[in-house]
Amino acid sequence: SQQGEEDPQALSIQEGENATMNCSYKTSINNLQWYRQNSGRGLVHLILIRSNEREKHSGRLRVTLDTSKKSSSLLITASRAADTASYFCATAMGGSEKLVFGKGTKLTVNP
Amino acid sequence: DTEVTQTPKHLVMGMTNKKSLKCEQHMGHRAMYWYKQKAKKPPELMFVYSYEKLSINESVPSRFSPECPNSSLLNLHLHALQPEDSALYLCASSTGVGSYEQYFGPGTRLTVT
Fold first, then answer.
1. Residue from A45, A49, A50, A98 whose CB has the most chain B CBs within 10 Å, to mutate
2. Which of A42, A96, A104 is the closest to B90 by Cβ?
3. Where in A15-81 does DSSP place strands (E)?
4. What is the pLDDT of residues B57-73, one digit of tens each?
């Protein structure tokens, strides 16, 4: 069963705009990870945020984590057409050997 | 080398065929994974290998048979598949199991006819 639920399911924006997608989860976690998947291809790891961290940056990506609300957000600033992809959050629960992926947000950046 | 390779890229097989998917990594990772992904869905975990031993089988039907010949290789043997098994099969690896970031291969697009 999925641990994470992304919101929105689909997002369409213009190049240069910012894109924000959210992830909610149900149980306590060790960390939360975001992955990108271009159409029909493998997933690429974007960023990992630990349960004791509140915010993390990587280039144009900003991730926040609110463990009290069991939610995370991924912000992509100054989006580009090449950012068009599906974005998944994945949670790693304590003592578990696996990541559980959310349903994903499909982002379309129009040139 | 931070790449996970998978072969073949595409595979079409009949329901009576036997085929194998292959995955390879040379990052020294000790955990390797097989996922199945249907269109517009997230990856679903099938198997986890840790130190070349099967540690998780997510109640996958026996027509899927994983094998880890060594720490760099992971195979998925396929036999008597059903059309509903058509999907993208992804291999991934990580330093250890659980909380580590995973490196994914490009996947094998499998069609069962």
1. A98
2. A42
3. 19-24, 31-37, 43-50, 55-58, 61-66, 71-76
4. 999 999 999 999 999 99
